[in-house]
UniProtKB/TrEMBL annotation, chain A:
Annotated GO biological process: response to antibiotic
Classification via SUPFAM superfamilies: P-loop containing nucleoside triphosphate hydrolases
An example molecular function term from Gene Ontology annotations: ATP binding
Name of the protein in its database record: ATP-binding cassette domain-containing protein
Family affiliation: Belongs to the ABC transporter superfamily.
Start and end residues of each ABC transporter domain: 4-235
Location of this chain's protein in the cell: Cell membrane
Primary location recorded for the protein, binned into one broad class: membrane
From TrEMBL, chain B:
Protein name: Transport permease protein
Species in which this protein is naturally found: Streptomyces griseicoloratus
Keywords, sorted A to Z: Antibiotic resistance, Cell membrane, Membrane, Transmembrane, Transmembrane helix, Transport
Positions of the ABC transmembrane type-2 domain: 24-256
Keyword Transmembrane helix: yes
Secreted is among the record's keywords: no
Length: 332, 259
């Protein structure tokens, strides 16, 4: 059964910005569904429409079989949402946040206490529960946000960029929470700019580009779809030319001291490529060959990698960079 | 019932938050009226010796206006808090809970009514020490505080209109001088016969005037007519002002919460 159905979902803001452009997709019950896209792709707007906070200009969305406009309160009762900017009140403690939501949801006092303790413990917040949120770290805020989304035991959870700004340890903790939640029967709709996160966590991924869905598939098939392996080599810009003469200009990317080369599928050019690089006096230390990551899929579909953002948004770029360096690519 | 329990839950949050950063909501309302009553009342003391001056000592004349001034100090605190909630996304979180949007607004208005009560009591106490009287007795004290709270809500409406229209949490700050204008164009500090003609006629258009006269009637007796008449006039002005401002506030708020 589809737990989320979006048909021709379209949102144009008053100023004419088209944030979501006739989007169609379905999310099956028990799935972790990823919405992947760069800044401004329309991730948050889609989440807001699905969670009844923003009205679509046209198109339809059904969540848990209920129309998000007509059955707004029923939908609100049964979903959990963790917003992108963990919306908390700095002048309230963590526990007071939980109490406020529990009381607005009119949870029975006995169940309330039990559930609160369970969540505070589960998310490692017991010690800071009585401190003002103003003193919380980004990680604590994110975790508190998650407890608030989960308090009433929703069967569908929306997480809008849940790991942005988290350190690697906290990211992994959140990932493991998502897996546990899924195992217990929950469905997760999550947005992310992190390709490795989508790869790691999601059963299916929609890649969103300028408001439109570019592709929806499983991480495995997305990777398969783009063909050959990727060669990565720490090098100077001069290494680009000899490589391009073998595999073509478009298959080579040079960023931040790293040359990435898409190897054509099937056709084994690796020996001749390495020979050519070696003959040109390019040191081959540190060369790795890996399966393509979702990042490559992203680049091919949207014509732009996350690195391009370096100029416009230093912090995000730094996070993306740290991630590229720190994970996945097997010894870059 | 559900709207009521939601309102009370949210009111509880507002009060706790107000007490945690008490300067604007709770300290200003005490500070400025006390400053005025101790400084101005003593330096204008001789005004009460002018022939025909209705009440002596001067502090007794000035007390009603200052009592109401508590309701004007810190106005905009709630409106600002509401816009900040919208900006931070906290309002979205609240919208996802089964609580009527009206409860969100109502809890803010109730906060405005409550926050001036302690200030009102202090100002009343100090006024009495300086020579003010409350002819209507203990029941009058209660009524005085109710009028003061009501004034805080009615006058505060102006700030909500500005905050919700601009969606700028700073905007209510720009409105603060309004209280001084209303104060001067009213019989708060001097009876109309001592004012310039144009100013005296302005006082009849100032809603503040009628609320002051209502309070004055409870403290030192009515300027003219009966206490009940003065109270009814004050009440009519308060209800009128509240209705007029809320006519603008409610739709603007509904747009804010997307209803
Ligand atoms: N209230 C609004 N009014 C006008 N335009 C808006 C509004 N909200 C979002 N937009 C625009 O809609 C587009 C999509 O925004 P959205 O927040 O959905 O992107 P996103 O994928 O969540 O981006 P990010 O990764 O930065 O969170 C952007 O161009 C944004 O500027
Ligand atoms: Mg977003």
């Amino acid at each position: 059964m589809s737990i989320i159905e979006a048909q021709g979902l379209h949102k144009a803001f008053d100023d004419g910005t088209v944030a979501v452009d006739r989007v169609d997709f379905e999310v099956a019950e028990g799935e972790v569904f990823g919405f992947l896209g760069r800044n401004g792709a329309g991730k948050t707007t889609t989440v807001r429409i699905l969670t009844t906070l923003t009205r679509a200009t046209s198109g339809q969305a059904r969540v848990l079989g209920l129309d998000v406009v007509k059955h707004r309160s029923e939908v609100r009762d049964r979903i959990g949402l963790s917003l992108q900017q963990a919306a908390l009140d700095p002048l309230m403690t963590g526990r007071e946040h939980l109490q406020l939501i529990a009381s607005l949801r009119r949870m029975r006092p006995a169940r309330r206490t039990e559930r609160m303790e369970e969540l505070l413990t589960g998310f490692g917040l017991t010690e800071v529960a009585d401190r003002l949120v103003a003193t919380y770290t980004v990680g604590m805020r994110r975790r508190l946000d998650a407890t608030l989304a989960l308090l009433h035991g929703p069967q569908l959870l929306f997480l809008d960029e849940p790991t942005t700004g988290l350190d690697p340890q906290s990211r992994r903790a959140l990932w493991s929470f998502v897996r546990t939640y899924r195992q217990s029967g929950g469905t997760v709709f999550l947005t992310t700019q992190y390709l490795d996160e989508a790869d790691e966590l999601c059963d299916r991924i929609a890649i969103l580009d300028k408001g439109a869905v570019a592709v929806i598939d499983t991480p495995q098939d997305l990777k398969k779809g783009i063909g050959g392996k990727v060669l990565t080599l720490p090098a100077t810009p001069e290494a680009r030319e000899p490589a391009a003469s073998v595999v073509g200009e478009t298959a080579c990317r040079f960023t931040d001291g790293v040359l990435q080369i898409d190897l054509p599928a099937g056709d084994d050019v690796l020996p001749s490529l390495l020979k050519r690089l070696h003959d040109s006096g390019i040191p081959l230390t540190g060369v790795t060959v890996t399966d393509p990551t979702i990042e490559e899929v992203f680049i091919r579909l949207t014509g732009e990698g996350l690195e391009r953002r370096t100029q416009s948004d230093g912090s995000v770029a730094a996070a993306a960079l740290a991630r590229t360096v720190g994970t996945g690519r097997g010894g870059v | 019932m559900s709207a009521l329990s939601g309102t009370l839950t949210l009111l509880n949050r507002n009060l706790r938050e107000g007490l945690r950063s008490p300067v604007i909501a709770f300290v200003f309302p005490v500070l400025f009226p006390l400053f005025l009553i101790t400084l101005v009342a003593s330096s204008y003391e001789r005004m009460a010796f002018i022939p025909g001056f209705p009440v002596t000592p001067y502090a007794a004349y000035m007390a009603p206006g200052l009592l109401l001034f508590t309701g004007m100090m810190g106005s905009g605190y709630s409106a600002t808090a509401l816009v900040l909630d919208a900006q931070s996304g906290f309002l979205d979180r609240l919208r996802l809970q089964p609580v009527r949007p009206l409860a969100l607004l109502l809890s803010r208005l109730l906060f405005d009514a409550i926050r001036v009560v302690p200030a009102g009591l202090v100002v009343l106490g100090v006024s009495v020490l300086l020579g003010a009287r409350i002819d209507s007795g203990p029941a009058g004290v209660v009524l005085l505080l109710v009028l003061c709270s009501f004034w805080s809500v009615a006058y505060g409406g102006v700030f909500y209109v500005v905050a919700l229209r601009t969606r700028n949490p700073q905007a209510p700050l720009a409105m603060a001088p309004l209280s001084v204008l209303l104060l001067f164009a009213s019989p708060a500090a001097a009876p109309p016969y001592l004012l310039q003609d144009w100013l005296a006629s302005l006082t009849t258009w100032n809603p503040f005037t009628y609320v002051i006269e209502g309070i004055r009637a409870l403290m030192t007796g009515p300027e003219s007519g009966t206490v009940t008449e003065a109270l009814l006039k004050a009440l009519a002005v308060l209800v009128g002002l509240t209705v007029v401002t809320q006519i603008f506030v409610v739709p603007a708020f509904a747009r804010l919460v997307g209803d």
